[in-house]
Amino acid sequence: MVDITAKSNTLRIATAEALVEVSTSKTIEAIREHRVPKGDVFEMSRAAGLLGVKKTPELLPDCHPIPVEYTGFQFEIIDQTIKISCTIKTIYKTGVEVEAMHGASIAALNMYDMLKPIDKGVSIGAIRLMSKKGGKSDYATQVSNRSAAIIVASDSISAGKAKDQTGKMIEQFLSELGMNVSEFGIIPDEPNDIRLQVEKYLERKVDLIVVTGGTGVSHRDQTPEALSPLIEKRLPGVEEAMRAYGQNRTPVAMFSRSVAGISQNSILLGIPGSKGGALDSLKAVFPSLVHLFDVLNGTRHGK
Questions:
Q1: Tens-digit pLDDT profile for the chain (303 aa)?
Q2: Dihedral (C-alpha) 241, 246, 248, 254: value to the nearest 10 degrees?
Q3: How far apart are CA 98 and CA 103, in angstroms?
Q4: Are the C-beta atoms of residues 147 and 154 closer than 8 Å to each other?
């Protein structure tokens, strides 16, 4: 199966549709009047569809077992067509499109089985996904005309004793989002140096400033102290999201003092210096953090 360990839980909703065609209006009358020999067509098909949803990962080898938290069926008669709608909700790392389509298709098959003794012309028509919501598709994943600056705060790298890997990784990550990494600096892990470098990028009105390194608990880790006086509005939810995401992957993430905030309409992020810690922090908040660029430009939430 596809590796989904890097994804975050979000609300996922999918609705699928299946069409059942009957050959005579007498079949529709039998359904309405509960005269089908095998029982109540809609209720039996609803039950079959529920089983279909639950059995999806057992029958389709690449589907992940997921916690299905809601399944709803609706049946609508339009002339000699019965439209079956299946809606599924979950809060998980992957979507429920296939489960919704499977539920609708099994409900349609059950309907066919119940109606064929009284209608030899019954058939199943289109089975299709009607809508889906959740995950990255709900957020902008490409950012145009947005600038970014990366500051690597490291005594060893600035002194030439080690090579930078984390800063280059961050640059690649942001570039893949569509951001223009216009500034890149490597400085010692000194609060005054960090503050001066950030102020320089703020003057240049860089949209996103990422400082990597100095978020731990050693006496040399002082990035949060350097950034805090510059932050006008703290973003505690962003900080919590980064730590929670990391904590699910390594227990030492609880020691991270990553910071996030807004200053002069720029977004400031202070994230770990390790490549893994920095990547986890970025994955935790992007692409949803892209929404902040629009908010800072005056766009209302939900627009």
A1: 899 888 888 899 999 999 999 999 999 999 999 999 999 999 999 999 999 999 999 999 999 999 999 999 999 999 999 999 999 999 999 999 999 999 999 999 999 999 999 999 999 999 999 999 987 666 555 577 899 999 999 999 999 999 999 999 999 999 999 999 999 999 999 999 999 999 999 999 999 999 999 999 998 899 999 999 999 999 999 999 999 999 988 888 899 999 999 999 999 999 999 999 999 999 999 988 988 888 887 766 554
A2: -90
A3: 8
A4: no
* Fold matches, 10-135 and 147-296: no
CATH superfamily placement of domain 10-135: Molybdopterin cofactor biosynthesis C (MoaC) domain (3.30.70.640)
pTM (2 d.p.): 0.75
Q: 41-59 and 97-115 helices cross at what angle (nearest 10)?
A: 140
Residue 113 appears among annotated catalytic residues: yes
Pick the catalytic residue from 3, 113, 207, 280: 113
Listed by start position, the domains of the chain span 10-135, 147-296
Which class is domain 147-296?
alpha beta
